[in-house]
Amino acid sequence: MKIKYADIARHLGVSKAAVSLAVNNKPGISNETRKRILDYIQDLENHPSPSKKVLLVYFKVNSKHILNMNYPIYTDVFSVFSAEAAARGYSFSTVYVEDSAEYALLECMREDVAAVILFATSMKDTLYKQFTNLNKPVILYDQEAPDSAHSSVCIDSYTALRQAIRVLDPSENETVKYIQSDAPIYNTETRRKAFVVAMLDRGFYVGKDDFITVDFMPEPAAIQLEQYFRSHPLPNCIVAENYTTAIGLLVAMRSMQVSIPERVRIVSIDELPEYVPGKERIWQIRVPHSERATITMDLLEYEMQHRDQIKVRILGIPTVLAPEYLSQKRP
pTM score, two decimals? Predict the structure, then answer.
């Protein structure tokens, strides 16, 4: 095992030079200090500690969701996990799960893995059950633990949808449509339930015709939405349940030359990437993805030190990003 002089010096409260002198049997330090250093090194060599690694298990939902990892939300979150692990003195690696979790489970059970993060946006309950008996800390990111046996860091979807309906502010004579993607993941399913609740809070009943289902990816979604709105009345307000459906919607509205927000008011549940044209004309509900990754690492480190503590669910509170035209109206 490679032992760093800096680590020895930090632990014993001596200088790196003193460690070097002791190891190389050179004068310049007391016999007592030399013995402390050499005894400590000998103890490390006789009782090596396993390397500390945080393993992230990423659950893929389908090929479209895999491609979507190219969007900034995913790359930023992965970068935060890696950086936060390094800052805490852990190595970091990722393993992927699609249909079978066998390989990921074997990786989780390795002795050098100190803790596991389940990136569970698209994790199915059947796959989750295979990870419940790991004898090490496990935290879920982006989904609640179905059995409440593990802590989780999620999105407050109900607050997000209440914010969305509040900024759209539909009157009793206006129509509101919800655009949902065809990806069956935890966040989208939770947002749909939250939409119904948020609308009921405003006195609106939601029926199945108020939901429009489109492809998860923006390009086919744009085609589907343009076809739909050319044969159906355009609503006054539209909620796009994630940034991919919002991108598709903006493309469709631009193709149809629909004025936003004069003709239709739009809100996206999730912040759109910088390169998307027209996004300054819609409301966006910013979901704290990267911040939740940092909180997940804090919670994981706490559980490594307090294994038998109560499990918790932490909800990241979304915030409203006002469209450009509103900002210009402010004094």
Answer: 0.78
